[in-house]
Amino acid sequence: AxxxxxxxxxxxxxxxxxLTVKCTYSVxxxxxxxxxxxxxxxxxxxxxxxITGDNLVKGSYGFEAEFNKSQTSFHxxxxxxxxxxxxxxxxxxxxxxxxxxxxxxxxxxxILP
Amino acid sequence: xxxxTQTPRNRxxxxxxxxxxxxxxxxxxxxxxxxxxxxxxxxxxxxxxFDVKDINKGEISDGYSVSRQAQAKFSLSLESxxxxxxxxxxxxxxxxxxGAGETQYFGPGTRLLVL
Lengths: 113, 115
Known about the structure:
The complex is a heterodimer.
Chain A (H helix, E strand, L loop, with lengths): L2 E3 L4 E5 L4 E3 L2 E3 L5 E7 L5 E7 L5 E3 L5 E5 L4 E6 L8 E8 L7 E2 L3 E6 L1
Parallel strand pairs in A: 2-12
Antiparallel strand pairs in A: 1-4, 3-9, 5-6, 5-10, 7-8, 8-9, 10-11, 10-12
Chain B lengths: L3 E4 L2 E4 L5 E7 L5 E8 L3 E10 L2 E4 L6 E7 L2 E6 L8 E8 L10 E2 L3 E5 L1
Parallel strand pairs in B: 2-11
Antiparallel strand pairs in B: 1-3, 3-8, 4-5, 4-9, 5-6, 7-8, 9-10, 9-11
């Protein structure tokens, strides 16, 4: 079955340190990959996506993600965390162009002052 | 996204009652979706519609129904609410014309409590 996994329910990072939120996927073919963020009492907001091309994708708020086909991963990264980055982060995959998007269960990111 | 609105934002109802959650969008998108969010379970797709005449079941459609009244409006109904339908419900839209990079835009959510 096609799926996306976020192995960490929660990630804690000190402010100013680099952060990584992990995502792996299991789909056939060449998937399209996304990251969304959810702030308290808000809907999900699009952060970035990988469609094709450069494996390093840059997105909103200084976030970036690296697509690694051999490891079937799409980890979200930021060089220096801010307290305001604290939120719930969702990885998502669209297996093929006409497929529905599949969301991971989410990872709660806590940035400690 | 302010272009995707949901009403009501909060709702308390009793077991057995029929309720409707409404979603409207001004983005001109052809595709609309209903999800529910439960802690630790992420987002689960309830129903989706790729255009006005197209309605499809998602992962967890039992106990729910939908209506796509117009391209801009997509309503979710609980015919007879039960407590385990207590959740946060999100509407989302997307534009099929953007191709493979099609991104979903979410409403602010409706928090539903079934007593």
